[in-house]
Amino acid sequence: MLVPVKATLKHIKSYSFIFNMENKQNKSTPKIDNKRYLKLIVKQKTTALKNCEDKLIEYENIIERQQKMIDHLLTNIVQVKTENDIEQQLFR
């Protein structure tokens, strides 16, 4: 239930003072609306995601190169072992 209030000159002046103070505070600190805030958050998250994606690609390339190197080393080990086995059989 609404109760009518008589506004006296004193009330009007105090409300006016409070309103002016709020306006001064709003001007000194820029207010970001929700849409701009969300755009900023999306931009930051997109940048972070892109950086993660780049790092992931870099790590995948490193793993691929290391796997090729391991395969090459294993091939060499098998080849040397085979050569040693053949030499041992020949010189028996």
What attributes does this structure have?
92 residues; mainly alpha; coiled coil
Structure at a glance:
84% of the residues lie in helices and 0% in strands. The protein has 92 residues and is an all-alpha fold.
Which SSEs are present, and which pair or pack?
Layout lengths: L8 H20 L5 H57 L2
What does this structure look like?
The chain has 92 residues and is mainly alpha-helical. The protein has a domain at 34-90. It is built from two helices and no strands. It has helices at residues 9-28, 34-90. Residues 42-69 form a coiled coil.
What is the mean pLDDT?
78
Radius of gyration: 38 Å
Major sheet size, sense and barrel closure: none
> Which regions have little confidence, pLDDT < 50, spanning 5+ residues?
none
The general outline is rod-shaped
Structural class of the helices, strands and pairings?
mainly alpha
Give the ordered list of helices and strands: HH
Distance linking N and C termini: 112 Å
Strand percentage? under 5%
Q: Helicity level, as a percent range?
A: over 70%
Tally of separate helices: 2
Strand runs, count: 0
